[in-house]
Amino acid sequence: MKRTAHVRLVVMAAGLLLLACSKSTTDPNDSGWRFLPGHVEALTVPSFRGGRPCRVYLPPGYSTSSRRYPVLYVNDGAGIFDPGGFVQANRICEDLIRGGEIVPIIMVAISVPSEPDTVRFWDYAPWPGRYPFFNGRVLGGGGDAYLRAVRDTLKPEVDRRFRTLPDAAHTGMTGYSLGGLISAYAGFAYGGTFGLVGACSPTYGWGLTETIYATARSGGYPQLISRYYQDTGYPDDNYIGSMEQLLVNQGFITGLNLMSITEGGAEHTVQAWKHRFPDMLRFLFRP
Q1: pLDDT, tens only, 45-70
Q2: CA-to-CA distance for 166 and 156, rounded, in angstroms?
Q3: Which residues contact 181 (CB under 8 A, 6 or more apart)?
Q4: What is the pLDDT of residue 31?
Q5: pTM over 0.85
């Protein structure tokens, strides 16, 4: 009888493990998705960018614990989570948490309006730049205002509503392309708030009157930025080698507080970003 009971326990454990590894696209709040899933909920702060929609991912065990969690703010947030997300960041995050590869975290996905199509440039580009696909129009310049809105309006509300670790060492920002550029700028310009940087395929070359390199050269960031992650593809993606060298010259140490990945054959696409998303989380939120 004891042997039979043991076999049953093994079978039950295997079944729970299969649920925990499920990757099929479905509602993240459906209890059938996996055993003890995390939770995604809507968040709207009327004073933040006119009530811009956000979604918040809460990790497994949030509702049954009293612990506080690091927070990752994610740009281009409309396509981040299931259902309907291109990145499925909640699933990636959950697999890594269950495998013990990262600490449990909260993710705040910040959407950006698709119309007019210049809003994304305004929010994510700290300085004006000339964009060839808009007939050479000069776009951008509102990135600093966007980050101040996140810092002064959205983040305080997130910290009030949820059990966060609000200090810079536990607060990060990530994004892809221009979203990666503004995430890097967040660390350089507001390292006292955003100490974790995830710059994915970042558009470092953006800017007419100013550049991200000049901001990074102003110094002091090894003391403010806890961990800096950047990635890109090769040969058809944004170049990140100059930033890597600049950060190393400033005292960043590869593998300790700096990770720079160039993936051969990867293109400038959301799918490539999704593929490298786990590496970013592993580095920024390693146990």
Answers
A1: 999 999 999 999 999 999 999 999 99
A2: 9
A3: 124, 125, 126, 143, 175, 199, 202, 203, 204, 206, 212
A4: 43
A5: yes
Q: What is the 3-state secondary structure (H, E, C) of the chain?
A: CHHHHHHHHHHHHHHHHHHHCCCCCCCCCCCCCCCCCCEEEEEECCCCCCCCEEEEEECCCHHHCCCCECEEEECCHHHCCCCCCCCCHHHHHHHHHHCCCCCCCEEEEECCCCCCCCHHHHHHCCCCEEEHHHCCEEECCCHHHHHHHHHHHHHHHHHHHCCECCCHHHEEEEEECHHHHHHHHHHHHCCCCCCEEEEECCCCCCCCCCCHHHHHHCCCHHHHCCEEEEEEEECCCCCCHHHHHHHHHCCCCECCCEEEEEEECCCCCHHHHHHHHHHHHHHHCCC
What are the structural domains, with CATH classification, of the chain?
Answer: 38-284 (3.40.50.1820)
Tell me the pLDDT band of 5, cut-offs 50, 70 and 90: low
Pairing mode of beta strands 129-131, 39-44: unpaired
pLDDT tens string 22-34: 444 344 454 444 5
pLDDT at residue 238, rounded to an integer: 97
Q: How confident is the model at residue 285 (pLDDT cuts 50, 70, 90)?
A: very high
Strand partners, 197: 173, 228
Confidence band (pLDDT; 50, 70, 90) for 3? low
Instruction: Name every residue whose Cβ is closer than 8 Å to that of residue 54 and which is 6 or more positions away in sequence.
Output: 42, 43, 44, 45, 48, 77, 108, 109, 110, 111, 154
